[in-house]
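queue> pop job 88
queue> type: inverse folding (structure -> sequence)
queue> payload:
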């Protein structure tokens, strides 16, 4: 077979991107290793799955997928408007909240503009900035693995257009408190978009958690992102939403692709919003799983960070990728985070027990 040389080249700001590497699918791992019964605790998915109401609604409309979806997501935005007590024109729907990160960068940044973000945090902030030839400005987390908003504020320059804040943070599971966020929002200029990624906010139990909606309602230049991928269990349908001033939403909608979310996702999301029992059950099983994992990891004298999410950041203090690969061989998929850390999703009780057993064997 003849191989042709490709002469077209991507610009340097694209070739320099380290692409996002998703967690290994269960089917692929089992095919590679010739095993069965593997467990995936790598991508922070809801182990209970989606709401039965969401499944039923998606099934109800599946025969109509020959038609294009509602390009304006009118019914879903209307449902969210009631759910959140915000106006229709203050909501944008995305193909997961990931797409909205990209749209925000493409809408408000030009080449050479800067975006400030914590490190380690969600890698998509860095990549979305690079895609528009912007400059990612990474600020180290505090010693207790939380966003250092004072240090981030100090890194703001005249070139800064966006500040990305994951609250709770991924991968550490820590939060920005109300007082910290209030102080930060007083300092940041009004011509800078503060993007608050709240993908895991439904799991948060800490009463000191920052109130981003308060700042949105007071007129601040803020974009709040949330998702149906986590507690609502719709990760495979890819749907999320943003909340912001109508002027911000209007500009982002100019960049958003037509029909960017599908009919099944929109319908399932509307139904999922109504199933409060599913959300409550998801929180309960997550809290029980966290308590079990905290106890077992403490017995092992392993350092970990207490979380406000459905995952735990574990400092293994040595070759995290080596441990990850050994666990893969035993059918346990977790997520290596840098050289010395792993992130493990809180699963069902039997999954958590299997993780501890295999983790003990490997380390």
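queue> result:
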């Amino acid at each position: 077979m003849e191989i042709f040389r490709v002469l077209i080249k991507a610009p340097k700001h694209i070739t320099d991107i380290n692409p996002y590497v998703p967690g290994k699918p269960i089917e692929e791992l089992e095919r590679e290793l010739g095993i069965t019964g593997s467990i995936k605790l790598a991508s922070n998915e809801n182990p209970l799955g989606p709401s039965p109401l969401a499944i039923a609604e998606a099934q109800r409309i599946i025969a109509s997928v020959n038609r294009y979806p509602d390009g304006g997501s009118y019914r879903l935005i209307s449902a969210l408007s009631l759910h959140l007590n915000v106006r229709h024109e203050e909501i944008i729907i995305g193909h997961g909240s990931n797409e909205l990160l990209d749209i925000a960068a493409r809408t408000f940044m030009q080449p050479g503009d800067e975006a400030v973000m914590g490190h380690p945090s969600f890698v998509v902030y860095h990549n979305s900035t690079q895609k528009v030839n912007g400059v990612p400005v990474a600020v180290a987390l505090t010693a207790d693995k939380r966003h250092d908003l004072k240090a981030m504020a100090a890194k703001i320059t005249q070139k800064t257009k966006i500040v990305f804040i994951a609250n709770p943070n991924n991968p550490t599971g820590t939060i920005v408190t109300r007082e910290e966020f209030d102080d930060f929002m007083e300092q940041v200029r009004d011509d800078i978009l503060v993007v608050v990624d709240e993908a895991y906010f439904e799991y948060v139990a800490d009463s000191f958690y920052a109130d981003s909606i308060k700042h949105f309602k007071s007129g601040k230049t803020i974009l709040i992102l949330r998702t149906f991928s986590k507690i609502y269990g719709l990760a495979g349908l890819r749907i999320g939403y943003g909340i912001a001033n109508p002027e911000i939403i209007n500009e982002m909608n100019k960049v958003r692709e037509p029909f960017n979310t599908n009919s099944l996702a929109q319908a399932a999301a509307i139904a999922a919003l109504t199933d409060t029992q599913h959300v409550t059950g998801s929180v309960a099983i997550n809290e029980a799983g966290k308590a079990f994992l905290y106890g077992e990891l403490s017995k092992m004298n392993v350092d970990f960070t207490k979380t406000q999410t459905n995952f735990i950041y574990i400092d293994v203090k040595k070759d995290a990728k080596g441990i990850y690969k050994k666990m893969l061989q035993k059918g346990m998929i977790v997520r290596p985070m840098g050289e010395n850390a792993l992130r493990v999703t809180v699963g069902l009780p039997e999954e958590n027990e299997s993780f501890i057993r295999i983790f003990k064997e490997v380390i």
